[in-house]
Amino acid sequence: MTRRIVLDTETTGLDPAQGHRIIEIGCVELVGRRLTGQRFHTYINPQRDIDDGAMQVHGITNERVANEPVFAAIAAELVAFIRGAELVIHNAAFDVGFLNNEFGLLGMEKVADVCAGVTDTLKQARELRPGRRNSLDALCKDYGIDNSGRQLHGALLDAELLAEVYLAMTRGQESLMMDLEAPAAAATVVAGGKRAPLRVLRAGSDELAEHERVLKEIDKASKGKCLWLSA
Questions:
Q1: Using the 8-state DSSP alphabet, how is residue 80 labeled?
Q2: Quick check: pTM over 0.85?
Q3: Rounded Cα distance, 207 and 18, in Å
Q4: Fewer CB within 10 A of the terminal residue: the chain, N end or C end?
Q5: pLDDT tens profile 97-118
Q6: Do the beta carbons of residue 196 and residue 188 sit within 8 Å?
């Protein structure tokens, strides 16, 4: 099953080319389409001041990160956590740019060399919802995801919310791709050219409960327009 890491960062400012650095990283793991509970989260001493504008967005002060580890101290653990996974990031160019800058300062591999790929959920949302607001808050509202605890930006909280948004946006796509990519099953034929009886596999109680849960999520996301529940 595909391993994905939903990732978010907070920074001292907007542009690493101007010397801005990462001050917080939050990651949560998805395997298949389930949160595993595995996460990576740390604050980082950027070894420079945080811009006032950035501080107003995430609320992280210079004093808060003064005694945190520098990026070099957490880099190997971060790379081990994300290696081989597909990254899922909202406005990926921003976070990947900062990560590549931090890795570059240490002479380490770039994100593209460490991970299997990057999915930008902002780009994905714009393609699915042209002309609509596609901020994380707007997506949470439209997909019925509770973000009432998000008063300010925070890397771990935002990664957790984005994981829920990503699952809501892509519901149904993964199973469709599996069907398209799977080789056609060979028909079982017995002597005389007759097809053998088909084996019927009935859903168990756990599978039925999971099916019901998914239908309720679809109904919530579509504001009561789930045809399977109304049939």
A1: H
A2: no
A3: 53
A4: C
A5: 999 999 999 999 999 999 999 9
A6: yes
